[in-house]
Amino acid sequence: MHRPPAMFIADSRGLDFLNSVATPLDTPIDWLDDGDGLIDWLAQAGLVPTDALDALKARATPADLDKVADEARALREWFRGFVRKHRGRPLTASALQELGPLNGLLERDDAFRQIVRAPDRGGALALRMTRRWQSPQSLLLPVGEALAQFVCEEDFSNVKACEGHNCTMLFADHTRRRARRWCAMAICGNRAKQAAHRSRLKGRQ
Question: Residues 31, 74, 42, 60: is their CA dihedral positive or negative?
Fold first, then answer.
């Protein structure tokens, strides 16, 4: 199946994961609808190194990758419910009891720190986190990390749903006045402007 490039408009990888199913131009798209889709989305999100993705894809069966994509979609919908329940106000410690599925995923991690050469720092040595990508299920670990980072570092008061008609996208509003209304001005924002323009013209007739 041909998919357009994934959309990363949320100003948060955790919310971008929720937006991996959307209806950007009246056609529903699930970027995680199978194993190949999950691999492509993780590559575009920059959550898994491309060499690790290539290696896992080479040794895993399509059925194994499809199963992980099923798990990713289940994780996504569970986390969507959590975010929708708590968005619009600060998250409190009482929410911890709801985060069992996410903590359970994080417990499976096999990550470690390693000294590496950092091209982005002129080749200087740097301490970086890496992990052993031993099974297709390990592909969910960086997603869990992104979700956990979002939970612990984002002010849920800034989490908004796009006001576009039928749009399901969520985003973190980091604008100075917290006045963002649309997932993307080029999509839902322009549609709203065009609808308002048509309404004004109709009112003059």
Answer: negative
Close Cβ partners of 39 (under 8 Å, ≥ 6 residues apart): 53, 56, 57, 65, 139
Both tokens of 84, joined, read 């929708």
The predicted pLDDT at position 197 comes to 44
Encode pLDDT of 156-174 as tens digits. 999 999 988 888 899 999 9
Q: How far apart are CA 58 and CA 66, in angstroms?
A: 14
Closest C-alpha among 38, 39, 17, 21 to residue 30? 21
Report the DSSP pairing between strands 111-118 and 124-131: antiparallel
Instruction: Over range 93-112, report the average pLDDT.
Output: 95
Distance CA 194, CA 59 (A): 50
In angstroms, rounded to a whole number, what is the distance separating the alpha carbons of residues 45 and 150? Answer: 15
